[in-house]
Amino acid sequence: MNTFRVLDYICFMAAKAEKIWFPVYTRPRAEKKVYAWLTKHGIECYLPLKKVLRQWSDRKKWVSSPLFSSYVFVKIDMVEYTEVLNTPGVARFVWFEGRPVPIPEKQIIMIQLLLEGDIDLESVEEKFLQGEEVTIDYGPMKGVSGELIDYRGKKRILIRINEIGKNLVIEVPLSHIKKSV
Question: What is the side-by-side order of every strand in the sheet holding 121-124?
Answer without folding.
Answer: 121-124, 166-171, 156-161, 145-151, 133-136, 177-179
